[in-house]
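Sequence in, structure out. Go.
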Amino acid sequence: MKIKHYTYPYLLAAYMLLLSFEPLKCEQFCFRVYLNDKGNSGYSIEHPEDFLSQEAIDRRRKEGLPVDESDLPIAHACLDTLTALGAHPVVTSKWFATVVVACDDSLTAKRLQQLPIIDSVKWVWKGERKPSPGGEAPRDTTRLAPGDETLKNPYGYAETQIKMLTGIRLHQKGYRGKGMTVAVIDAGFMNVDRMTVFDSLRLAGTYNVVSPGESVFSDDDHGTKVLSCLAANAPGIMVGTAPEATYWLIKSEDNRSEYPIEEDYWTSAVEFADSAGVDAISSSLGYFTFDDPSLNYHPSMLDGQTSFISRAAGKAARKGILLFVSAGNEGDGCWSKLTFPSDAQQILTVGSITEKKEKSSFSSTGPAADMRIKPDVVALGSGCTVIDGTGNIHYASGTSFSTPIVAGLGICLLKALPQLNSRDIIQLIQRSASQYERPDGQLGYGIPDFYKTFKQNRKQPAIKQ
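Output:
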């Protein structure tokens, strides 16, 4: 595994800040505090290099986007004020000027509401916090190699899922993701650091939002499977859709419970990825119900503007990030609709089809509540080839896997067409799809054709918005 080390001062500062937050172990309540303003952090938008990476600045410049007040961090003085009341910061959002705080007294919310710096308070978690599954136990470092038979086909068992999108031909032109930086936001990347299929992984770094300081490689292999669709590089076994891209692996999902605090974790992960200067994000997480039913969402809220997480996704897109999100796996359930944040605007939402190119029964359906076409496109999501936590080939189903398959080729396309921005790429992917002229809420615009898109647009100027 090839590891690249970065020394962004702002990243170190953010990481140390989270390490200083009191971990959630015994607190009974967490509240999302909305600040009236973020205070004076000592930073200025005239000097973005002090709090954004050069890559983040360059991406904004390419996309024609300014650095603005939302990019400024929350002042430490604001956090100190909250701590003084017994409300310990857990996770923050500079974009929305929010701080999630933990406390063992529900009356703390009333005391917080009386502070002049606070606009409103919403509870986002309650219960008895259990220790993180990752724990402190020593990890096995034995190397994990697939025991599957090596095939003559270079793409191995994953050939069908990339060939369906004409991705092999795009790779043959030399576009395999090299030079692009991608954040994968998920529940955990169990044993990725031990697997031979990831020996060539270009790893920018890892970040655990849920349990700062703990490894992302020790808990949950959902992210392992997702990452394999993108970055596996074991010829004859499995080759992902962007095997030469550089990756940030970020854990935002806390599988010990389901509460709105997960939206805050996800938002923090996206803000971190933005500040690190990623070109794209692939996320296969979605929410709509919680452990407390009073917090559940309603389908009418699927407008891209209501849920905290969908607003964050839209904000990331407006920062110039090419964002791919899974539509959800509720198609044959009572909910049936998209999950949040797949309703967000200016992102690419991915549904699932079978090998026969029919909608997977579980794939969540659109349109969005405001009648926008969702999902945007579809890819193989029934019986996908993935690498599981043991390092072996596994067949899995879900929009969790159709999403990174599309995302990897979208990343390759962004590299192949440098004259275009992220909004252009989304439009081209939609236009190339099999039912662009007659989209619906089942398959969206259909199955994209990445090589056709590349061939038709490699000499074209940027699309006029």
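Check: The longest strand covers residues 118-126. The chain is about 25% helix and 15% strand.
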